[in-house]
């Protein structure tokens, strides 16, 4: 491209406000030596320099003298047409500005930094006997990184100190400061070794290998009961992909799952895959981003954001635990990684495998409609048997006040402890107690900035808002009536359950698994490894324990409140309860000993509870599908959520009402608008929230109509509008 030609560069400033997401394609003058479509470039934007991507030729509608030049072309492989197409189509589908979508694809730390600026820090060999608290925290943080190279910023953040503390230790040679090494390719994986498959696994593995070998897009549901060996089966497809010289991506819903998975991959292929998630150091993430683009990272395991990596030749995508709600991002860019993975596979011309023991109804419906193939694994791997599932009717149990474990469940837990086995008690509620109540006036302590009750976290000795993260000390005096000594914790959380377990089973080793109890994803992974190796007798956990973990000694799962998810207006309440209970129960009896799952319920006759216990999954899905079809809701209709927020409650309601009145573009396609109505949590971080819901037929051109509808309005400066296509939650 000639130096005078313009280029379209999409800016991606990560440190600026929402306004940057609205940037249109910008024209810049090509640098000396030119640049090409897809090149990563540094461009001036106002007073700053930001990273962009050349999107095509400039329009040439501006005075050439006013067009600013590209500062430089970065030393990185150009963004391939496949990825650019994926970003554009994902942006169109989710109604996200392309700039915001591009931001997801350019998250390589230090992408624009010259090598001379890259410094890494490691632990030295000399450790003084006497250290300040801050310096000791730096050393402990480096030990937690396990010898990995870290940047100054992430080391200071992990240690909870300033950069000067780290620099002080560098001067003492306690911490080593080094130039970042040249990014190296990942070690090759051995694809010659064959896995030992059995029964249904053989046919399923052969079918997936055949799909990968023939090439082209295909979508397959790999459905198997928990412990049936789904991982081993789809790793056969990964092996075939690697034998063809192409790249494979496996998405996992939780970072805590990676440790076990990485171990299985290493055992199967003789080397570890590349990892992409928040627990990986910035140095390693930059290396991975570059190696993926060069084709020197053949197998990537990652969280949902790994979907936006610049693969050179993507030949297979696997979405493990495809039903998991963690795949839906509901901040910034609203997208479902499962659905976007299907889109990327289609654009790349690659097979995609959706693996789950309890697939979501959308996937089940696509199988029924013939859009997806289906492979079933009906039995557990090896000698392991499926757990027995039984209900404990809490109406017939006699519980003491402030007790939540029934006598029957307590006896079963004690039996496992006596036999040196593990028991898991599941309660999907973080903290100590969900409500802190004044017994004098009835006041419930809420967040100052949100319309949400504050949850007591006794381990932290604080009340915490689970919406905005605000905290305050545990009160002795009622904030409303000022009476002292009348504040009481109401209801159980996992911390309160742990208190009861410690009192009932004083000799048992106890472990609590809840996302808020660990300072980092790395610490959570370490605790899960300890438990898997037998480091606890009784495990108490929230839904984090339901996500694919393998605890070989676990033979009993007790669900404390199986009714918790059955209430509420969420159209997926029944589906999610069914999935969660089946997944939790599936943690039991993964090895030689058969497991048992006991569900404490006050509604043993509820259809969902009966379906969970009876194991008639297909019957449950058919009934759920019939209800959704009759109501015209997903997957048999389309929905979009409109979320408005503003510090001014009158403004946000008035704007919502005006949106509802001027719904002509939506009525043209037969869509309905419901609302405006206060969101279930009507105030978060001091901003009042109003929701509208748009419902349309499955074939309706919903995105175009929504774009025309919203384009009628100019948003006030302090009002935000977000569009959530295919909403998964309605908070």
Describe this structure in words.
Helix 1 crosses helix 2 and helix 3 crosses helix 4. Helices cover 31% and strands 23% of the residues. The protein has 5 domains: 100 residues, GIY-YIG endonuclease, CATH 3.40.1440.60; 61 residues, Arc Repressor Mutant, subunit A; 178 residues, Rossmann fold; 175 residues, Rossmann fold; 88 residues, Alpha-Beta Plaits. The strands form 8 sheets. Strands 10-11-9-12-15-8-16 form a 7-stranded parallel beta sheet, with helices on both faces. It has a 6-stranded parallel beta sheet with strand order 17-27-26-18-25-24, with helices on both faces. It contains 20 helices and 31 strands.
Instruction: Give the overall form.
Output: globular
User: How widely separated are the two ends?
Assistant: 50 Å
What is the class of the largest domain in the CATH system?
A: Alpha Beta
Rg computed from alpha carbons, rounded to a whole number of angstroms: 27 Å
CATH topology (fold) name of the largest domain: Rossmann fold
Mean of pLDDT: 85
Beta-strand content estimate:
15-25%
Structural class from helices and strands?
Answer: alpha/beta
Describe the main β-sheet briefly. Answer: 7 strands, parallel
Strand order within the widest beta sheet: 10-11-9-12-15-8-16
Provide the CATH architecture of the largest domain: 3-Layer(aba) Sandwich
- For the secondary structure, the number of strands is 31
Low-confidence stretches: 1-23
Helix share, percent: 25-40%
CATH superfamily (homologous) name of the largest domain:
P-loop containing nucleotide triphosphate hydrolases
The number of helices is: 20
**Number of domains as seen in the coordinates:** 5
